[in-house]
Amino acid sequence: MPIRQIDDLEKLKKINQALISRVERSMDQQGNAFSLFQTAINLENRVRSRTDELRSTLRRLEVSNLDLAAAKENAEQANLSKTRFLAAASHDILQPLNAAHLSVSALAEIQTDEEGKKLVRQVERSLETMDDLIHTLLDISKLDAGVVEPEITDVSLEQLFVSLKSDFQPLAELKGLKLRFHAGNAVVRSDRTLLRRILQNIVSNAVRYTRTGGVLVGMRHRSNMIRIQIADTGCGIPENQREAVFEEFHRGTIPPDTDLSGGLGLGLSIVRRMTNALGHPVTFSSVVGRGTIFRIDVPVAAGAALAHQAAASEPERPRGYGLFGTKVLLIENDMEVRDAMTALLERWQCTVRTASSSAGTLEALGDTAWIPDIIIADQHLDGGDLGSVAIADARYHLGRAVPALIVTGDASETVVNIAREIGVELMRKPLKPAQLRALLAHLLA
């Protein structure tokens, strides 16, 4: 019905109210839709803004990662350069140090009064400390640079322990300590040189920090591992220094009358680095005033029962052989070292001829009536000449495999392999006269 035909006022009001309500509802719906539209736009803007921020952050992170990678590469190169520098510098440093060792040893043999002998011993201890510091710093540099490649082989603990006992027994007896080693016939898989150095450092600390009682080095089988234990009755390590003992130059709190002569605080730092390189976990427990036990877990080797036979078959180096009248050909380019070595050998009643190169070696052997009993050669001579080459030339000239010894400050595996290939002994500079004399007596025997 058309609205103009409605004459009921109340009905018109109701219709008007219904129309108004419909219009209001329509407007509300439109308002809600617009509000949602605005919300969507705002969210899209927020997402775009956050996306831009994230992209910017990722770009900065990428640049930062590139910078970090470059810095890491530079640090590694610097570390390797430091290692190469130390290796090269150590050879130059060890040359005069070696000459000093030899000269002091020769001086010690001509001292007659106690005051002179005392001064010589003080100089010897200072030289040994300097020697230990140089070699330790070089070892730390190599380990930190990751250039040490362990040579994993079967290692007889009995042989290793016998060697360590001969090194530390005199010091233990001097301090009135009991020093015991128990290895059984155990054989482990490790690098013999590194493992010996680890045990040497720990045993050295144990003897140094123990005033009464003693040191016991033993082992226990644990499944497929062998646990090497070094126990002492020393002053112990306080709880708040348990981690610090593995830091460089840390020596801890010690009793005032404890003898720490020669201690540098680097032994356990080397131990941590070497055990990490070998994958041999090292732990310890300690009670202040009662002592410390260090434990090293090393993989057991197959055929452990052969260890005792291997140890028994190794001939023991004879001691006490004299060198009187021994003819020595000494090949050394450094004049100070050559003079000091000559003086020492002559004090041992040896006859010495010297050369500084391969060519000079043949000149020294020109008199075929003089045939050396032994050849001692520095490995790195002038102009790239090598002691190993000089030894080979001398042997060829003489027509016989004269016993020979290479002495060098070069700690690389290359020199070790060269000595092994030509069948000669190897000693590191600076030489310790007592060890040199024992080795010469062994070679001559």
TrEMBL record:
Keywords: Kinase, Phosphoprotein, Transferase. The keyword Phosphoprotein applies. One of its GO terms (molecular function) is phosphorelay sensor kinase activity. GO terms for cellular component: plasma membrane. Its EC number is 2.7.13.3. It catalyses: ATP + protein L-histidine = ADP + protein N-phospho-L-histidine. Gene3D superfamilies: 1.10.287.130, 3.40.50.2300, Histidine kinase-like ATPase, C-terminal domain. PROSITE patterns: HIS_KIN, RESPONSE_REGULATORY. This is histidine kinase.
